[in-house]
Amino acid sequence: MALRSHGGRFVLGGAVWLLAAAASLSSCSESSRGDDDDDDSSGEAGTSSGTSGGSGGASSGGKGSGGAVGTTGGTTGTGGVSGTGGTIGAAGDSSTGGASAASGGQASGGASTGTGGTDVSNAGAAGSDCSGDDCAIGVCGNLMLESGEVCDDGNALPFDGCSPQCELEPECEGAACVGTCGDGIIVTGEDCDDGNTKGGDGCSAQCTVENGYTCTAAACDKIGGTCVVRVPAIFRDFNANDVAGGHPDFEPGFNSIGDAIRGLVEPLLDSEGKPVQSGLTTSQLSNAFLHGQTAFAQWYRDSAPAGKPVSKEIVLWDDGNGGYVNRWGANGEQWPGDASFPDYCGEGDCSVCPTPGPGQTCVPCPSLPTYSCLVTQLDYDGNPLFFPIDPPTAGILNDVRGEGKLPEAYGWAGWPWETQAATTLGISTPIATAMAPFPSTTHNFSFTTEVKFWFRYDATKTHILSFTGDDDVWLFVNGHLAGDLGGWHVPLDATVTIGGGMVSGTGTTSRPVTDLGLEDGKVYQIAVFHAERQSEGSSFKLGISGLDVTRSTCAKN
Q1: Per-residue pLDDT band at 391 (split at 50, 70, 90)
Q2: Tell me: the pLDDT tens digits for 400-427?
Q3: How many angstroms separate the CA atoms of 117 and 89, rounded?
Q4: Strand 151-152 relative to strand 539-545: parallel, antiparallel, unpaired?
Q5: Which helix (H) or strand (E) holds 361?
Q6: Rounded CA separation 139/164 (Å)
Q7: pTM summary value
Q8: Where are the domains of the chain?
Q9: Given this model, what pLDDT does residue 257 score?
Q10: Nearest to 95 by CA among 330, 386, 262
Q11: Exposure of 509 by Cβ count < 10 A (0-12 exposed, 13-18 middle, 19+ buried)?
């Protein structure tokens, strides 16, 4: 494999990192995220300064070789495995080498990072997906290209060409992203693509099937037996407009008109891949609580008045219908709607009740246990308490903290405080969730979310993107605005559908896919920009369907 310079970072070969919906990274005998059943012993954790660890250790994942420690994001002893960037899985699953503090665990070779979502703001040890000298673990984020890495730009932030796992991200400066052998997605001219450019594993460095091997679609990445997709995100914290150093667009301090305000951003991203506030009248600016293009441009950039950019993952869970969606629970549990208003059937067991309707369950009545009641218990995808950068997340700003309210869109009438909802649900001690403990009175509000991932457009399929926003949410496909929920507002739903040669989306006009520059078989970027701008409520949902980006796994015949 060749060493070359690529955009100011060191890269190896031509591998490109892609997030695949229903695909995993590993092509070797050992999974890159570890084997929970294969745990070594007593490796001494390395220090946060980057020195080497002891010998013989393993993280909560499977075995590896030649492990070096990472920085603050995660450490491993020599001989131990660290996951990509020392990350943790959604709220308690040791998905990538670091144990989640959400479940109270700590891997013997990987430092935990905190409750909830994966925090890789500091570089950790790069993952290794097999054993042997060619797959030894390097230290991702030290500006040194080492074994197991295909790039290293000295940080653990995504969307800059080199991922937090020290794998190349697609280059999307032109009409389509550049598809390269080793990016984990099979494009025209490739027989296989296993996410690396290492020969001898069944899929060659030229993405042809090697003699004696058969290559098929890889199994999905899993947490607790459920298929998941991990979407990279950057969060940026802001202070309210009435705080010294605060941002003028955050914390309006009063309720909005309730509906989205369309047309707040230009139809195309700028040259840096960021949304641009459109030219608005004074009245429109006031209604949207915006204060000019310069202030808006700060929302998704890393300079003041924003806090330090925080890199995490949002885990999307198999929804059972061929798609993936983020959820509230630590292990993919849906949010439970309020079932505290029962319909009384009468005295006796459930035989006195009519046949339960959709979402209904027969239970003993709360106040009359000898009677039976029908309760409606609807469960919801998405997260009605979306707080990804609560204290003690490094890099966030000092600001007023508080608890969240449950929106009516998630099955709770009257917007109760989360402590009230917890009491109704019988939760007296805070529990881990996908993002933050529940209940909590110390949430961090006023932040933005930037999500980017890649897919191969298939003209024979229907690709569906669904999202719920509280507050602003914009979705771009290949740099073109496709979904528009601007303004601060209650949770609102939107869908973008790409199929039959057309693109249709909430808040935008249906148009041919050619208007977005889409061509069959090519790779494109999806970008989601979100902002939480008014305290008390923060919810977020992202669902994907039909975005299969098949990665190969190869086995000897």
Answers
A1: very high
A2: 999 999 999 998 989 999 999 999 898 9
A3: 7
A4: unpaired
A5: strand 360-364
A6: 11
A7: 0.74
A8: 230-312+446-547, 340-376
A9: 66
A10: 330
A11: exposed
